[in-house]
Every structure is written in structure tokens, then in C-alpha cells.
Design goal:
The complex is a heterodimer. Chain A is mainly β. In chain A, strands 2, 4, 5, 6, 9, 10 and 11 form a 7-stranded mixed β-sheet that branches. In chain A, strands 1-3-8-7 form a 4-stranded antiparallel β-sheet, with no helix packed on it. Chain B is mostly beta strands. In chain B, strands 2, 4, 5, 9, 10 and 11 form a 6-stranded mixed β-sheet that branches. The radius of gyration of chain B is 13 Å and the shape is globular. Classes of the chains: A mainly beta, B mainly beta. At the A-B interface, strand 5, strand 9 and strand 10 of A face strand 4, strand 5 and strand 10 of B.
Amino acid sequence: GAVVSQHPSRVICKSGTSVKIECRSLDFQATTMFWYRQFPKKSLMLMATSNEGSKATYEQGVEKDKFLINHASLTLSTLTVTSAHPEDSSFYICSANDRRVNTDTQYFGPGTRLTVL
Amino acid sequence: GESVGLHLPTLSVQEGDNSIINCAYSNSASDYFIWYKQESGKGPQFIIDIRSNMDKRQGQRVTVLLNKTVKHLSLQIAATQPGDSAVYFCAENNSNSGYALNFGKGTSLLVTP
């Protein structure tokens, strides 16, 4: 149980284009989803927290107009990197939990490798 | 500022030996701790967790110890196997942080035959 998927697993795009990454909870309902970014050999950096049906809460220094997050249902959240540039290249990982059951444990997706040319 | 960090960035152990990965935290309000395993190119995988009202918790081949006095957390892996080679992260949260996890820097565990 507690499986989280991400799509796509890998994407290469041209500078200036937008890329959408999907995060789905497959066997549980995710009241809360988190988006992280990870650079090579570094730890995970929280970008934003989203609760189903409400606006995401962004961490300091994360541009909300650049990283659009939508959490429209209890099983799906999307992260759209708008007007991507090479410095946005990174490993993006989502996690999810069902706060009605457990406020703490987060289950992670497999990650999406974004490369912006 | 408040932080979670690891004492050792890399750890090399022989197959069959026990591994101990350490983590220090500074936020005295932290009340929930998790260990994750991350293999190259993959997302973190939940290993074991512990709440602040406990000082020890055991899973399959893994044990987490929590010492709140010195704000120290450790992960013990028994009979380490090559498949255990990965980066291990400790993470903590507390109700004041809105349930978001604060990750440590990570320790790379390499299991040699």
C-alpha cells in the first residue's frame, strides 16, 4: 500500500517551454502533497505544500508563478514548470500523505528527471 | 537556525556486518522522525519511523534509536547486504512546521562483498 507514482519519469525540453509533472497516489487518498527538488548528491529541498482543493503554500525563495501547483483531487497533484530554463534542470520528487489517517508519514514518488536544453 | 544533519557523509561496510548511521537534530520541538533510503535515480523509500515518546523501534533488520537528551537519532541495519547500498536520509517534522519534512544531508552507505 501507499504507492505514489509520477509521470513522466524523465523529460527533456527546450528552454522557454513549459513542462507538467503529475503526481498520483494510487491506493490511498492524499489530502496533502509535497513537492521537492533535489540536486545531484544533495538532500531534498521542499518547494511547496499543497492541500486538496486549496492553494499551495510555497517555501521561501520558490517562485509560485514559475512553479505552478494544482491539487484538484485527492489522488492527483501537478507541478508545471513554466518557461523552463537550464537552471531548472533537476530531479523533482513528490510525496503524499493522508492527513485524516496519519499526519506525519509521507510516501514518495519515484521522481522526475527534468533536463532543460 | 533549526537543522537536521548527519555526522558521516559516507559509510563503507562489509557485507554481513552491522551498519550504524547517525543523525543529529537541533529542533527540540521535533516530535516525529523518519529514515528514508534513496537509491540512485529513485525517490526516497520509507524505512522506519519513530515518535518522540519512544526511544527505540525495530523493524525487519533495522532499528531506530532516539536520544532526545542529546538530540540524536541513529539507524542500525543488521547483517548489511549489497542491496542496502544507497543514500540514507533522516527527516523530522513537528506540528509547528505544518507537517512538512526537514531532511538531513544524507549518508551514502556502500556495502562491499
